[in-house]
Write a structure and sequence with these properties.
This protein has 219 residues and is an alpha/beta fold. The protein contains eleven helices and eight strands. Strands 1-2-3-4-5-6-7-8 form an eight-stranded parallel β-barrel, surrounded by six helices. Helix 6 links the parallel strand 5 and strand 6.
Length: 219
């Protein structure tokens, strides 16, 4: 499973990149607004921090303007992945862009039928929103499972990018089902490291080592 970090905070992205676990970055208009920085400037900086895809979202709602915005965005860097909404115009844009070899992330997916349409439009990634699905009384993991089954049935190459991940359990369940990518806030990625027995074990090892009065030379 690939790990993408869902943020526009440069410090957080650098920290995640230093772990060697970062495979890409997803952003959206809300995250860019939260950063308080210029959209083009911050996107270019993010693209320089990872070799993986960096999702940059169009804000237009019609196909013609989406294409114009995408043309601007894909000039930022070779690893820009254009993010479009799961609408008729969004999928028209997806088909056009992927036909030209541009990566496209189709976002705001809330049904397996929508994911089927995205795959038929040639999407590089489709982003089903697990947490938001759960918030509205549906089962986000069932959605991931349905999409995986459909994609396997027909050999679609579109990658399932599990989004709106709220906790490590979402990551575990997505991995079990076979999502290709999980995009997470930095706090969720850090939460994957945590286990009470790891903390207790480390505490015990350090206590026993200190009793020996020894140290490992560092120079």
């Amino acid at each position: 499973m690939k790990f993408f970090v869902d943020t526009a905070d440069i410090a957080d992205i650098k920290e995640m990149a230093d772990t060697g676990l970062l495979d890409g970055v997803t952003t959206n208009p809300s995250l860019i607004a939260k950063s308080g920085r210029d959209f083009m400037e911050v996107t270019k900086e993010i693209c320089g921090l990872t070799d993986g895809p960096v999702s940059a979202e169009v804000v237009a709602l019609d196909h013609e303007t989406m294409m114009k915005e995408a043309e601007t965005l894909r000039k930022i860097a070779d690893n820009v992945c254009i993010k479009v909404p799961l609408t008729i115009d969004g999928l028209k844009t997806c088909k056009k862009l992927t036909s030209d070899g541009t990566m496209v992330n189709v976002t705001l997916c809330f049904s397996a039928n929508q994911a089927l349409l995205a795959a038929k439009a040639g999407a590089t990634f489709v982003s089903p929103f697990i947490g938001r699905h759960d918030d509205n009384g549906f089962d986000g993991m069932e959605l991931i499972g349905d999409i995986r089954l459909i994609y396997n049935n027909y050999g679609f190459e579109t990658e399932i990018l599990a989004a709106s991940i709220r906790n490590p359990v979402h990551v575990l369940q997505s991995a079990r089902i076979g999502a290709d990518v999980a995009t997470m806030p930095p706090a969720v990625i850090k939460g994957l490291f945590k286990h009470i027995l790891t903390d207790k074990g480390l505490e015990g090892f350090i206590a026993d080592w200190e009793k020996t009065g020894q140290s490992i030379p560092t120079s």
